[in-house]
Design a protein that fits this description.
Layout (H helix, E strand, L loop, with lengths): L2 H24 L4 H19 L3 H16 L1 H4 L11 H20 L8 H24 L1 H6 L1 H4 L2 H7 L4 H27 L1 H7 L1 E2 L2 E2 L5 H18 L5 H16 L4 H15 L4 H24 L3 H17 L16 H22 L13 H7 L15 H32 L6 H17 L8 H21 L34
Helix pairs in contact: 3-5, 3-10, 3-21, 6-19, 9-21, 10-11, 10-12, 12-13, 12-14, 12-20, 13-15, 14-15, 14-20, 15-16, 17-18, 17-19, 19-20, 20-21
Length: about 500
């Protein structure tokens, strides 16, 4: 086709589309204009930063869920288009991956244990929901998100090339800086974020309570592992303060996640970071203990007693202990809450369908509420029993549970191999440690069942596998030998995967 004719046809089509979108806006319909705006904005960003479309989508989701959390998770492009960010991003980036795979005639997965087990996790959930949607309808699809969010793993793992991966790392670094600030400001000025900083009445930044500290631990680990050069002067002290705050904080799931991540790091070549964290926490505890025992400082005494009670509550599985301080007074109730719910879900699953589970859409809370708190039945709206292990067993039975446990084991093996390497890449270490923070927290809270934690987890896991595979690539061959047959030393790599050491994209 003639170039001039083709240009005129494109201009005419653009004018027609603009007029139609203007008519939609004039009539109060915002769905298609919103989609057109997002497409145009994405295309502009792709051209400006010279990265693929799927990288822009994943970066937006990573920053949005990391910093905006529950507020970002509830955003919709228009009231008449009830799609949430995670589902939109998964559809767009997933379609992009499938088109690329079809064009290159390759499968979007690798032949290793983690890839096969993530695929098995999705397949088991998909087969289960096919039977459940007939009985429970849309509710089954909503619960099925626990399985299909794992699709982000394959998308992020297949984002190859130095520039796209560095763009994702830069996004994570920026989010790691913004997240603790946002979490602190939402605590100091809650009314502003709930009622003013909103979009169509939905807060743009609103943290799900337990995830605020979980993400803060992830933020600290990423700041430690992703920053280079002069940026470490502010990033490493901030990372130390964040992780110390999480370990001494009120949320025990986040504390356990941070401790497990530090245990992995303590086995690696940067084990000194774990020892620094331990020294900071120990110094803080001794300082508070000294003030509490040797002076009349009321705050120190309360903090000291609540810390002891919180530590004791970790092993009080049945919640029979006595907790009297304000900060830990609810720990016993929380333990009983989980113990009763887990027991009931496990019993019901074993009685009704131990192999394939009770299915997506089944109300795992119905019998629990009747036994634990019948008077709160009308106000109780939680659907997940605060543990991905129990959720996996309740929804998909022993089949799904075995797949998830095997996946956890494969992640542990991959992490062990990395931390044992004397030349382990620091970026990869931080990513794998961050994966463990979220995974451990998910065993004691609603994390992987919803997009707030699942989107970050599966993308981090995919990026960790991609970066680790990249760090294992063979080094460049030695330079050409000189006339005296002495090989010249290999040159240092010109670019490293460090978003702050090389800020220009």
């Amino acid at each position: 086709m003639n170039l001039q004719l083709r240009s005129r046809i494109m201009i005419a089509g653009a004018i027609a589309a603009s007029l139609w979108l203007a008519g939609q806006l004039a009539s109060g319909e915002y769905a298609w204009p919103a989609i057109a705006f997002v497409v145009a904005l994405s295309a502009s960003v792709v051209v400006a930063f010279r990265v693929p479309f799927d990288v822009i989508v994943i970066s937006t989701l990573l920053f949005g869920y990391f910093v905006g959390n529950r507020g970002f998770a509830q955003l919709m492009p228009a009231p008449s288009l009830p799609l949430l960010p995670a589902e939109i991003g998964l559809s767009l980036a997933g379609a992009w991956l499938l088109l690329q795979s079809a064009h290159q005639r390759t499968l979007p997965m690798r032949r290793d244990a983690i890839n096969l087990l993530v695929l098995a996790w999705i397949v088991v959930g998909t087969i289960r929901v096919i039977f459940d949607v007939q009985h429970f309808g849309f509710v089954a699809l909503r619960d099925y998100a626990m399985s299909y969010y794992a699709g982000f793993f394959f998308i992020t793992q297949n984002i190859g090339g130095e520039r796209p991966q560095r763009f994702l790392l830069l996004t994570l670094t920026a989010a790691s800086v913004a997240q603790p600030i946002a979490a602190l400001l939402t605590e100091v000025f809650p009314a502003f974020f709930l009622y003013i900083f909103t979009f169509r009445g939905v807060p743009l930044i609103y943290f799900k309570g337990d995830l605020a500290l979980t993400f803060m631990a992830v933020s600290g680990l990423l700041l430690f592992s992703l920053t280079r050069g002069v940026h470490r002067l502010w990033a490493w002290p901030l990372a130390t303060l964040e992780i110390a705050y999480v370990i001494t904080g009120a949320n025990r799931a986040s504390m356990l996640g941070a401790l497990v991540a530090l245990a992995w790091i303590a086995r690696s070549r940067v084990r000194w970071f774990a020892w620094v964290q331990g020294a900071v926490v120990a110094a803080a505890f001794l300082l508070v203990a000294g003030l509490a025992l040797l002076t009349e400082n009321g705050w120190a005494r309360q903090k000291f007693e609540s810390t002891l009670e919180r530590l004791a509550s970790i092993t009080d599985f049945a919640g029979r202990g006595t907790y009297v301080t304000e900060e830990s007074g609810m720990k016993g109730d929380n333990n009983r809450f989980r113990a009763v719910w887990w027991r009931i879900v496990i019993q019901d699953t074993l009685d009704q369908n131990p192999v394939f589970g009770l299915g997506f859409g089944y109300d795992l809370a119905e019998r629990f509420v009747q036994e634990y708190s019948p008077e709160a039945a009308d106000d109780f709206n939680a659907r997940s029993p605060h543990s991905i292990i129990v959720s996996a067993f309740g929804r998909t039975g022993l089949l799904g549970l075995l797949v998830f446990v095997a996946l956890t084991g494969a992640i542990a093996v991959r992490t062990w191999r990395l931390v044992c390497r004397p030349d382990a890449d620091l970026t990869a270490l931080g990513l794998w440690a961050s994966v463990w923070v979220i995974l451990v927290s998910a065993c004691f809270g609603v994390v992987l069942e919803g997009p707030m934690g699942a989107v970050l987890f599966w993308n981090l896991l995919g990026l960790a596998t991609a970066i680790t595979a990249r760090s294992k690539e063979p080094e460049a061959p030695l330079a050409a030998e000189s006339d005296n047959d002495e090989a010249l030393p290999a040159k240092e790599p010109a670019v490293q995967l460090s978003p702050l050491h090389y800020p220009a994209l």
